[in-house]
Structure formats: C-alpha cells, structure tokens
C-alpha cells in the first residue's frame, strides 16, 4: 500500500520551493495531513489507533493505515558485538539509558520492528504506510518533526515507478546518509524507482543507480512542476532585485563623484630662462581649469 500522502504533496510545494534540500520532516507533515482521511485510495477504512506503554506513562498513536495493530511493546535492543565488549562500562555508567526497540504486531502475527526508539520523548505520533513499509511520524522534545522507520529488507517493485525530485538531494551509493554521494539530483529531475528500503528509494537514471532519501521523491509530477515554477520565479525575482541594487549603487557612486570638487590637471609647462639677471628661470604652468601659475627653477 502506498502512503496516502502522494496526492496531497502539492500542499507543501510552496514551503519547500526555496529550500536547497528540504528536510524529511516536511514530507512527514504532508503525510500526516493526507492520512487524516478516513479511507485510503482503495476505499479501505483505516484501522483503530493504539497505545505504547513505557515506564511512567503511555503514548497514543494515530493509526492512519489499514493494518490493525493488536500489540505494541517495547523490548530491550539486542546488543551488538561492540556493545557487548563495552558491557562492563555500560553497567557502571548509570546515566546511560538502555536502548529499546518497538515491536508492532498485526492481527495475523506480522511483526514490524523500529530500532533504538525513545517513545517517552515522542508527541503526536502517527503511523503511516508508504510503499509497504511502516513509518511513525512524531514531534520530538523541541517540537521538531521526526520520522522513525521500521527495519526491513529491500523490496523490488514489479515495475519501475516514475518519480520526481522535490528538492536538490544526494544520490548515494548505499541506503545510508553517510554513504558516498554519487551525484546531486536537482529539483525536477526524473528517476525510475526500481526498489525501496525503509527510508530510501533505489533509483535509476541512465547508467546511474543509487539511493535517494524517500521524502525527496514523489510520483506527483504536477506538484514538482509547481515547485520548479516557484523556484524559477523566485530566482528571477532575486536576479531582478540584485540588478536593481547594483544599478542603484552605481548611481549613488556617480552622484558622490559628481559632488566632489573637480581636480585640475596640468595642461602645459613653458620654461623661461633667466631674463632679469637673478640667475633663476621660471615655468609658466597652464591648468585644465584655465588658470596659470608660475614656478621658479
């Protein structure tokens, strides 16, 4: 199931049009708004909301998918080798919190795991489904929009899906923000999406294959066209403003120069030898303003 926010992408085009690389949270806001509809594009009713219990309280999660969650529990995250090696230090440091994983279980027993979560710090949590992967959109302690993605293997689509870039973004070698950047895709670029992994789309463009963070791609070409147009208009307005500012500065500079007294320059210098027996001659100097001065030598 595709997340129902695809059709509502236009609602964020204005906000994202001036960004070089719009944050993933912008897409999350759009997803939350569109997912508020009672039914998805297939006419299926959304499932009931659910809660996640944690020490000291519980978190209500708005379920905007058709998947009924019968159980939501926190389990201690499995330690990797490095964590086991540092176990003694971890135990000694009482200030360190144990990492927790969130496991959502559907009615048919299907489990979805969200690794290393801190649900006690989440607010306004919303569960959404995007291209058969589950995401939880939420606000952190500072009120910033965030997203948690389930852990799952890459899935290849039966047929490539045409998508468009909604803001300049890196195409990376692997589905990892720290992975090598192969290129920067520009707003409006078109890609064939051949697979997905939580948080990422695997894309093809000519001979290039890589991964793009999912919130920068959409099937909604009209929305991206609107973004491109808005950016072009903004760039044109900025260029016009810069040209006007440069012209004004030039005018001010010219006016300041005109206000300065003109500096006279020497036009000619005629030497006259000693003609009065003094033993000295003199120069008759003519200046650009018509004045004449004399200088002994």
Automatic annotation (TrEMBL):
Residues 1-28 form the signal peptide. Gene3D superfamilies: SH3 Domains. It comes from the Bacteria. InterPro entries: SH3-like_bac-type (IPR003646). Residues 76-97 are annotated as: Disordered. Residues 168-218 form the SH3b domain. Keywords: Signal. Residues 78-92 have a biased composition (Acidic residues). This is SH3 domain-containing protein.
